[in-house]
Amino acid sequence: MVRNDLAELSAFATVAHERSFTRAAAQLGVFQSALSHSMRNLEKRLGVQLLARTTRSVSVTAAGTALLQELAPALERIGSAVAETLKQRERPAGRIRLIVPRTASEMVILPKLAKFARKYPEIVLEITSSNDPVDLIAGEYDVGVQLGEFIQRDMIAVPVTRKMRLAVVGSPEYFKSNTIPRHPQDLVIRAVLDGVGIGTSMEATLAEMIAQGRLVQVLRDWCPTFPGYFLYYPSRRNQPAALAALIAALRYSE
Predict the structure, then answer these.
(1) pLDDT digit of tens for each residue in the chain (254 aa)?
(2) Where are the beta strands (DSSP E) in the chain?
(3) How many CB atoms lie under 10 A from the CB of residue 188?
(4) How far is the C-alpha of 27 from the C-alpha of 25, rounded, in Å?
(5) Are 251 and 156 in contact (CB under 8 A)?
(6) C-alpha to C-alpha distance for 24 and 42, rounded to whole angstroms
């Protein structure tokens, strides 16, 4: 099928329904002469006459009727599919494929997931959790979450957390028998000499245990903040309403 076939077949269906080139041309928004020329081209390519023309009327031939019986349901399905696609620009609905690191799932997605699902029941979030770098386009994802420093510059990035930093922590029991490090070099030496006893993780994920006294945070001055997690996606053009809703729900503001 050549590029113009679908448009010409749709025009043929309109002419057949209207039984008039004048009315069909007005409905399609084209010149009558152009529509007539298009129908002659279609008949020439198919090798059969589809429309019988007189100076006063237009009727559908037997071949045209047979074609129309198969064509009309197909055109209706295509029209419905296009209309459903257009709705996605206005109504938050459809599937969003999202790739998120495991830590970000707990920090960014899970706290807001239930509220988002209740507000937008027609949006289906298909979430994949992975810590590996991912090419959104190649992986067929709509949007991703990642630390700002790992996002390609040609992506649109929206902050979804505040600035973050690593926390160096150990248990109170550990520090009862081990010196608290004052410099990162001390930490390296102690880890080698005494085995695993001090670890690092995102400060936000440890905040509650630090506040409860279950962990002791050290070397705070050696752990500067850095840009946190961002929601990122390829382009702002023709953004579906579902994606706009997700961005609004996850966007971080002070």
Answers:
(1) 445 578 888 888 898 888 888 899 888 888 988 998 989 988 998 888 998 887 778 888 998 888 888 888 888 888 777 777 666 666 788 899 999 998 888 888 888 998 999 999 989 999 999 888 788 888 889 999 999 888 888 899 999 999 998 888 888 888 888 788 888 777 675 554 454 678 888 888 888 888 998 888 989 888 888 889 999 998 767 778 889 899 999 998 77
(2) 51-53, 58-60, 94-100, 123-129, 143-147, 156-159, 166-170, 198-202, 216-218, 229-233
(3) 12
(4) 5
(5) no
(6) 16
Find the angle CA(61)-CA(67)-CA(73) to the nearest 5 degrees. Answer: 130
Residue given tokens 């609004």 in the structure block: 248
Q: What is the DSSP string of 13-77?
A: HHHHHHT-HHHHHHHHTS-HHHHHHHHHHHHHHHTS--EEE-SS-EEE-HHHHHHHHHHHHHHHH
What distance in Å separates the CA atoms of residue 168 and residue 199, rounded to the nearest whole number?
Answer: 6
Distance (Å, whole) CA 196 – CA 18: 82
Integer Cα distance of 80 and 93 in angstroms: 16
